[in-house]
Amino acid sequence: MKRNQFLYFLSLLCAPVVLWAQNPNVDIKNYEFHLTLNDENNIIKGKAVLDFEFTNPSSQLVLDLVEADGSGKGMRVDSVIQKKNQLQFSQSDEKLSITTATPGSVVIYYHGIPKDGLIISENKYGDRTFFGDNWPNRAHQWLPIIDHPSDKATVSFHVTAPSKYQVVATGMLTEHTNLDNKTSLYVYSTPIELPTKVMVIGVAEFAVNHLGNIANVPLSSWVYPENKKAGFYDYAQAEDILAYFSTHIAPFPFTKLANVQSTTRYGGMENAGNIFYYENSVTGTRSSEFLLAHEIAHQWFGDSASETDWSHLWLSEGFATYFTDLYAEHAYGKSKLDEKLQEERAQVIKFSETTKTAIIDSSRTDLMELLNPNSYQKGAWVLHMLRRKLGDEIFWKGIQQYYKKYKYANASSVDLQKVFEAVSGEDLQLFFTQWLTQYGQPKIKMEYDYKNGKLKLEIKQMQKEEFQFPLEIRFNYADGTLEIQKLDINEMKNKFKLKIEKEPISLDLDPNTNLLFEEFK
């Protein structure tokens, strides 16, 4: 790899990428949210208690919070208190700036109608629901926070709501009190530091099925009562999925796992310990098995071991995609793995035809645009090729070491590379550079000629950037036999002379589905 490509790789991996700014001056240690919900209107009343430290000398505590605007939506801060003293504050540009030179604890009183982030609506049965929907940086639509995955904190939710509702939230239920004939209080709390993108509440009329402890984790299903039988049947598939990942990666990182039917934006959202799935994930046919696997895999990768910044999103989405593939291989065999990888390869190729970006993409200002096949399917393919390069034993050892090191912390792509280099003893710079920072994938054109027991074979790369990779070729013979040879492709044009006893009737590239490539026709 050329030196300038190497330097470009380092700049992408090591330099901070500002898509939604971090606050380098503040470290939030704990959030305590007191929220009051009602059925008369969509106004929420909030009290947020924040424990924080200044990491650099400062007289301003700057948080993310969307202010109320002319539409009547947004959050309006009423007062900020520190040690019984009123603090000065201002709201502008989605920021709440509080004047204080004293670290410790502040209490923020606020109210408003969420523009986004907390979705207050009706489900498909016409019943009112409230669901947190924070990804990527929408939590500050309803909570005063630092809305960036690198600033993790512990959290508790104290939710007061009409008594007809059940509440599920991040952490374990520590209190449920009927305050009067009309309202109830639910308190959930977790001692585990989390990114704000996966701190949520869900409030609705639920039917709840407690499946017991699976891999020492309390597992439950929360579905709408109208489709209770189908929902309990569908979501019970989480038992085998949870057991598989807990065995192969590490013990489950959180204190519970609740799978929740919800009314939100996404097909699935990996909120820590309580995953929200779209309404129609419940069918009674178990058609959402791989959706469950994807979101449950996120509990380890994305929620516990989180990306340092948005440009490294593949460490979340690529991992969840490939670990879904691994679960599919475990449950249904290699043919299912190959089927899924071939589908994912087609998605990557189609995306690359219109969007000329690499996996690590610092160009995006709209974070939603990162939800693309580079982050998901191409990220999965990087892990698959790494697995094939190193072998299963080293691959799993590397995964387990990576997770162990960055559990409840943040990692970048270079951190992953360093772990795998330490575990394998190999220099993986070229591998990570070309697959993470180069646009596209190899476009392979194959030409061959057979004479007198020798086959002349030419492999050309037709894309602009050079890739280096092993390539398997299957020789198919007229008598039904076949032979597979592996060649190292190190140049844009590669010529080989192979001695084979009989002329093949055809040659197939990558018969075992081990390479992300497209065949040039």
Automatic annotation (TrEMBL):
<keyword id="KW-0862">Zinc</keyword>
<dbReference type="GO" id="GO:0005737">
    <property type="term" value="C:cytoplasm"/>
</dbReference>
<dbReference type="GO" id="GO:0016285">
    <property type="term" value="F:alanyl aminopeptidase activity"/>
</dbReference>
<dbReference type="Pfam" id="PF17900">
    <property type="entry name" value="Peptidase_M1_N"/>
</dbReference>
<feature type="signal peptide">
    <location>
        <begin position="1"/>
        <end position="21"/>
    </location>
</feature>
<feature type="domain" description="Aminopeptidase N-like N-terminal">
    <location>
        <begin position="30"/>
        <end position="196"/>
    </location>
</feature>
<keyword id="KW-0645">Protease</keyword>
<dbReference type="InterPro" id="IPR050344">
    <property type="entry name" value="Peptidase_M1_aminopeptidases"/>
</dbReference>
<dbReference type="GO" id="GO:0006508">
    <property type="term" value="P:proteolysis"/>
</dbReference>
<dbReference type="GO" id="GO:0042277">
    <property type="term" value="F:peptide binding"/>
</dbReference>
<keyword id="KW-0479">Metal-binding</keyword>
<dbReference type="InterPro" id="IPR001930">
    <property type="entry name" value="Peptidase_M1"/>
</dbReference>
<dbReference type="InterPro" id="IPR042097">
    <property type="entry name" value="Aminopeptidase_N-like_N_sf"/>
</dbReference>
<comment type="similarity">
    <text>Belongs to the peptidase M1 family.</text>
</comment>
<keyword id="KW-0031">Aminopeptidase</keyword>
<dbReference type="InterPro" id="IPR045357">
    <property type="entry name" value="Aminopeptidase_N-like_N"/>
</dbReference>
<dbReference type="GO" id="GO:0008270">
    <property type="term" value="F:zinc ion binding"/>
</dbReference>
<dbReference type="GO" id="GO:0005615">
    <property type="term" value="C:extracellular space"/>
</dbReference>
<protein>
    <recommendedName>
        <fullName>Aminopeptidase N</fullName>
        <ecNumber>3.4.11.2</ecNumber>
    </recommendedName>
</protein>
<dbReference type="GO" id="GO:0043171">
    <property type="term" value="P:peptide catabolic process"/>
</dbReference>
<dbReference type="GO" id="GO:0016020">
    <property type="term" value="C:membrane"/>
</dbReference>
<feature type="domain" description="Peptidase M1 membrane alanine aminopeptidase">
    <location>
        <begin position="241"/>
        <end position="435"/>
    </location>
</feature>
<keyword id="KW-0732">Signal</keyword>
<dbReference type="Pfam" id="PF01433">
    <property type="entry name" value="Peptidase_M1"/>
</dbReference>
<keyword id="KW-0378">Hydrolase</keyword>
<dbReference type="InterPro" id="IPR027268">
    <property type="entry name" value="Peptidase_M4/M1_CTD_sf"/>
</dbReference>
<dbReference type="GO" id="GO:0070006">
    <property type="term" value="F:metalloaminopeptidase activity"/>
</dbReference>
<dbReference type="InterPro" id="IPR014782">
    <property type="entry name" value="Peptidase_M1_dom"/>
</dbReference>
<keyword id="KW-0482">Metalloprotease</keyword>
